[in-house]
Each structure stands twice: as C-alpha cells, then as structure tokens.
Amino acid sequence: QKAQIGVTGLAVMGRNLARNFARHGHTVALHNRSYGRTKELVEEFGHEGTFLPAETAEQFVASLERPRRVVIMVKAGPATDAVIDEFAPLLEEGDMLIDAGNAHYADTRRREAALKAKGLHFVGAGVSGGEEGALHGPSIMPGGPKESYEALGPLLEDIAAKVDGEPCCVHVGPDGAGHFVKMVHNGIEYADMQLIAEAYDLLRRVGGHSPAEIAEIFKGWNEGRLGSYLIEITAEVLKQVDAATGKAFVDVVADAAEQKGTGRWTVQAALDLGVPVSGIAESVFARALSGGKDERAAAAEAGLPGPSAGAEHSGDLVADVEQALFASKIVAYAQGFQQIQAASKEYGWDIDPGAMAKIWRAGCIIRAKFLDFIKQAYDKKPDLATLLVDQYFLDAVSGAQDAWRRVVVTAAQQGIPAPGFASALAYYDGLRAERLPAALIQGQRDFFGAHTYQRVDKPGSFHTLWAAEGRPEVDA
Ligand code: NBP
C-alpha cells in the first residue's frame, strides 16, 4: 500500500494536518526529524485513518505514490531549507514538495527556482487557522506551478474549510503568490485587531463601560455587519474574569503586544511596492509602541501631559464607534487587497482578488461575513482600483463618515490614541481629495534637488531655475 500524501514535521500543525488528511480517507505517510513524534501520532491517533509511519526519509519517500506529494510543516526558516536539502535528492521529476509553514515569500521564490532547475515542483502554501484549523479545516493558499495544482488541489480542497460546500482553497498563483497572500492575510489580521482594540479603549475610557459591558456590545455587533471570528473572540476575552484576583482578565494582562513578524513583513513588502498600507503599518507600530518599555517609563516619569479639558463626545458613542470601526476596517482591507494586486502585477502572478476573499470566509482568523461583499465587488469588476469605490463599500463609508469623524475628534480631544481610526480617515480623505499638497512637495524637490515636476496644463518634465533673479525661468 502506498500513501497519497506525506507529511514531514509532526509538531502541532503537521500532526493535525496529517490527521485531517487521514480523516478524509487518504493514506498518509508520516515523517519527523526525531521519530518520537511520529510514533506518538500513530499511538494516539492511529485509529483515525491509515498512516504509514517512516523512520527515515528514504522509507518515507518509498511509501508515497507518484507523483509524490510531500507536505513540509517545520519551523519556518533554516529548518525548511534543511528538510528540502534532505528530500530533494530522493525525489524524481514531477514530484512535489509543499511548504505549508509560514515562510517569507521571497524564500519561497528562491526555493521554487532552485527546485525547478531539478525538475521538482515546489509549492509554497499559506495555511491559516492555527492548530484547530489544521485539524478541522484551514483556509489554504497554495502557490507554485499551476500544473502541480491538478495533482495536489483535490487533496488540499478535501481538508480545507468549506462555505456552502465550497472549499476555502484555490490555486492563488504561481511562484511565491500563496505565501505572499498568506502574509497579507496576517497583515490585515493585525489591522483588524488594532481597530477592535481602539474601539474597546474608547468605549471604556470615553463611555465608562466595564469590560463585561463592552463584551455585550461586541456580542451585539457580532450579529450585525461586523460579524466575524475576531469580534466574537473579543467578546469572549472581555467577558473573562481572572480567577486569582477576581478582576477582569484584560486588566491583569501586561499591555505590551507581541508579534511574530508577518505584520512587519507585510509592511516591508508594501514599502517596496509603494502601496500605502497605513492601517497595517499603524497596527505594527502600535504593537511596537506598546512594547517600548523604556520610552513609556520615561514618559510616565516626565509626566507627559494630556489635554487640559476633555470635551464630551457629541453623539451616541456606541453607535459612532461601530461606524468608525466598520469604516476603518474597510480602509484596511482595501489597502491589503491593493497590496495583493500590486504584487500580482509586479511578479506576474495573475491573482484573482475575489477568490482570495472567498477562501478567507472560513478556516482563517479574519473570517467574516464582510468578505462576501469583497468577493462580490471583485466578481463585478476584477480590476477594481480600490474597494472604496465599489457601491457597497462606498455607501458604507459615506454612511459612517460623520460618526467616524466624531470618534476621531473625541479621541484626539480626550488624549486617547486611536492611530488606526485616525490614519484610516486620513487615507480616506487623501484618496478623495481633489488636490493634494503633494504639489508643494514637488516644488520643494525641484528647488533643492532639481528633481523636476509635471504640470497640470501641459505634458513634459519641467524644472524651475529657482536661483535666478526676478521671474523664475522654466526649462522644458
Ligand atoms: P514548529 O514551528 O514548532 O516546528 C517544529 C517542527 O520543526 C518539528 O517537527 C521539528 O522536528 C521540526 N524541525 C526543526 Br524545529 N528544525 C528542523 C530541522 N533542522 N530539520 C528537520 N525538522 C526540523 O512547529 P509548528 O508549531 O507545528 O509549526 C509548523 C509551521 O507552521 C511553522 O512554519 C509555523 O510558522 C507554522 N504555523 C502556522 C500556524 C498557522 O496558524 N498557520 C500556526 C502555528 C504555526 P523535531 O520534532 O525533530 O524537533
């Protein structure tokens, strides 16, 4: 008997993916650097399906039917390269190595190019949903050569999350497209979490609501257009009481947000592409600020003053914050999708943005009803310049904007940081501005560096001879 698929790297993620394949009736070959994990999996979960455990890489490869499909689920980075170096010489033309870890897309591009030269298919697949997702149905974002999807896709679609019977898995595009999209997914997740945190902070500090009350507000919001996994778990977290102290859980947790790096990668890639993902960037920086222990201690010691008088919020705070949250979320998603489109163009990946929204509807952390509207927007117009001009989002933002502005004003007046809400609003206003002060920046650049500028009334590049006396002369 041969296995349809093999998994190497059997820590929590790999183990659960292997069990998921087995539960769907596939025979799964198993391998791990240290045999202990392989043995443990078979002892504990062997009854769930058919597993072919292997002690060595050679046995593992020999137990797979061709073309061989080897899922790598090890620690991202050098471990992935070590595993590739171990397996590549044992594989034959047309076999596939699928990296399901959280690799940087640039590493994936490098690995694919190297393996292609050896006649092997390398598929960088983004897998979202954590350990629960891996076992019960993740959202899967495979990249790599299109041909490989024919032999691999059906197996991945089997184990993926489903919405109305449709799998949350699609061939994203060639090369590093899958890991790129997974990265942006995580960046959007950072922005979403930051915006939710700002909403909580304002409800607490402006509205005076307790964490338990705010949990109820979020629960209510979860029934509406904000309905999503992140809003749902926020209500759960806020409701939680610390057993040791009897205080709200959120009040006993140190307020320094950590990060593993995918948000930062998203912003770094956006800088290179020149895409303004300000919502994601603010969320990465807000985490960094929260963790800036020395600066925060110095500020506390110096007693950096807040506003002399905090004005009251004019309006229904809870309703206004819901509007601000929804509008800012739309901006963050619009920016993330723009980044995907920019990379797709830059690398020739031909990514269908609507399909990304579709496979994020279940299995992953940002799963939400909202994604249906994004899918519909791109289905209607695949080359949509920005989500903000799609009718649904345009209506939502124009309906929200007065409340959104009131919330940003209140935050500024009361000295409560809301970088996500404020920068999303600034982005929105920048996008809709008829004239931007960028014209002045062009003038400054031309003045000090002779960088030239373009004119609104005729084509060409112009330079003004600034130093000349009297009337500035113009070079065409
Ligand atoms: P870890 O990231 O903790 O990695 C442990 C696995 O890597 C073990 O199987 C270990 O083998 C193996 N490994 C290491 Br470490 N160095 C190795 C080497 N040089 N050669 C061969 N194998 C090596 O496992 P995880 O938490 O299950 O995560 C796996 C991947 O999934 C990572 O890329 C991670 O970023 C990603 N991940 C994704 C999500 C998600 O939501 N998508 C969640 C968590 C993790 P050993 O047993 O012999 O030490």
UniProtKB/TrEMBL annotation:
Its EC number is 1.1.1.44. InterPro entries: 6-PGluconate_DH-like_C_sf, 6PGD_dom2, 6PGDH_C, 6PGDH_Gnd/GntZ, 6PGDH_NADP-bd, 6PGdom_BS, NAD(P)-bd_dom_sf, Pgluconate_DH. The keyword DNA-binding does not apply. Pathway: Carbohydrate degradation; pentose phosphate pathway; D-ribulose 5-phosphate from D-glucose 6-phosphate (oxidative stage): step 3/3. The active site is at 182 (proton acceptor), 189 (proton donor). Substrate binds at residues 102, 128-130, 185-186, 190, 260, 287, 445, 451. Keywords: Gluconate utilization, NADP, Oxidoreductase, Pentose shunt. It is an enzyme of class 1 (oxidoreductase). GO terms for biological process: D-gluconate metabolic process; pentose-phosphate shunt. Homodimer. NCBIfam families: gnd (TIGR00873), PRK09287.1 (NF006765). Belongs to the 6-phosphogluconate dehydrogenase family. This is 6-phosphogluconate dehydrogenase, decarboxylating.
